[in-house]
Design goal:
With about 325 residues, the chain is mostly helical. The chain is built from eleven helices and four strands. α4 crosses α5, α7 crosses α10 and α9 packs across α10. Bound molecules: heme C (2 copies).
Length: about 325
């Protein structure tokens, strides 16, 4: 009996030493690097349609995270990220050859946007990836990054370096990994199939599920529908007033979701203009999305109707979080 007890103690000891050793290793190594991409360069013609589409996608994603206070994409502090990830700054993605992305080829940029692996093999763990975005849409983004648009003109300005927390480093060594580069071309679904088109606009073009699910660390970018709490909301952010805020429940649950709250017309208005029917404004980080057309947002609504309902009362969650802070 005593011997068995000793063996158990030794085993527990070994596990503790192992875990501490892993944490120490991670703290020193940081986020791992991978093999640099070996990709064939592709030609991307900067047609007016591509530049407009690229700008639209950049407005939804890249600009919010990369623009400085002069609207140049030289990098900025990511204020709304929960502090548990550390102090994170985005980087300079202007066309500058030294501090920006001027040295990337088109193919390397496409590879990075899908997988998170930079041309030198280092891994961007915080930046969202776009593994399922249509090739044509990614080409539009790259065409815009290469254009003479003001935000991407070469600039030497740099944001401070990020300080990743131990938690972020552990995630970067365990659950947050580069994504595989797709083997086949990805296409934008036919817009006459409103549900399929709406799913593409919501999940791939708008990445709405990334914020409107339950936990950033339990997302599945390769199969968004398998993310924890898909469209049930609850992910935590910080408002501009530095108070906690949670993403809304966008499933059609009648009580806690949008099933009874919004008609299609009202949904289109709240998403595009950021104003609720009662006149209240959606708060940061939920910005208005005027770049999406009425048809695109209407299609998101049709798609959300088909998503499994989740009961999750976000108002209560916010009230409790504020109460625990004594507010
Ligand atoms: C949520 C914020 C966020 C969004 C949205 C975002 N980025 Fe980033 N990006 C980052 C951060 C942070 C890094 C630095 C690496 C890291 O920590 O993940 C980065 C790094 C990069 C890099 C690597 C640059 C280098 O030095 O090698 C490129 C290229 C890039 N982003 C382009 C884009 C483009 C294009 C978009 C829009 C399609 C975009 N990013 C959207 C936060 C973001
Ligand atoms: C950066 C994270 C983020 C992204 C991306 C995002 N949302 Fe939100 N969204 C939020 C947060 C946080 C709220 C809560 C705002 C508030 O309470 O004022 C919200 C609120 C909403 C609401 C209001 C719901 C209600 O009950 O009143 C709708 C509708 C909505 N989002 C739709 C969308 C759609 C559609 C997309 C994609 C095009 C999207 N969101 C992308 C974070 C995000």
């Amino acid at each position: 009996m005593k011997k068995a007890f000793r063996i158990v103690l030794i085993l527990i000891g070994l596990v503790v030493v192992g875990v501490l050793g892993f944490i120490g290793f991670v703290a020193i190594r940081g986020v791992p690097t991978y093999d640099p991409p070996v990709v064939q360069e592709i030609k991307i013609e900067a047609t007016p349609a591509r530049l407009a589409r690229g700008e639209k996608i950049a407005q939804m994603h890249c600009i919010a995270c990369h623009a400085d206070n002069e609207n140049r994409l030289t990098g900025r502090k990511l204020e709304d990220l929960p502090p548990l990830f550390g102090t994170i700054y985005s980087v300079n993605i202007t066309q500058d050859k030294e501090v920006g992305i001027g040295k990337y080829s088109n193919a390397e940029l496409m590879y990075f946007l899908r997988t998170g692996i930079r041309r030198d093999g280092s891994f961007a763990g915080i930046m969202p990836k776009f593994p399922l975005m249509a090739d044509e849409d990614l080409k539009s983004v790259v065409a815009w990054l290469r254009s003479d648009a003001f935000p991407v003109q070469p600039s030497k300005k740099e944001a401070p370096a990020s300080e990743y927390s131990l938690f972020a480093k552990i995630l970067g060594n365990t659950v947050i990994k580069p994504l595989p580069y797709p083997e086949t071309e990805k296409f934008i679904p036919d817009s006459t199939n409103e549900v399929a088109f709406g799913r593409y606009v919501a999940d791939e073009l708008g990445s709405c599920y990334m914020c409107h699910s339950a936990d950033f660390t339990k997302q599945n970018p390769l199969e968004p529908g398998k993310s924890l709490g898909y469209y049930g909301g609850g992910n935590e952010f910080t408002t501009l007033e530095k108070t906690p805020i949670f993403s809304a429940n966008l499933t059609f649950d009648e009580e806690t979701g949008i099933g009874k709250k919004y008609t299609k017309e009202q949904f289109v208005k709240v998403v595009r203009a950021g104003v609720r029917p009662d006149g209240s404004l959606l708060r940061y980080p939920m910005g208005p999305h005027p770049m999406l057309t009425e048809y695109e947002v209407g299609s998101i609504y049709e798609y959300l109707k088909t998503v499994p309902k989740i009961k999750n009362n976000i108002q209560n969650k916010e009230r409790e979080a504020l109460a625990s802070l004594g507010k």
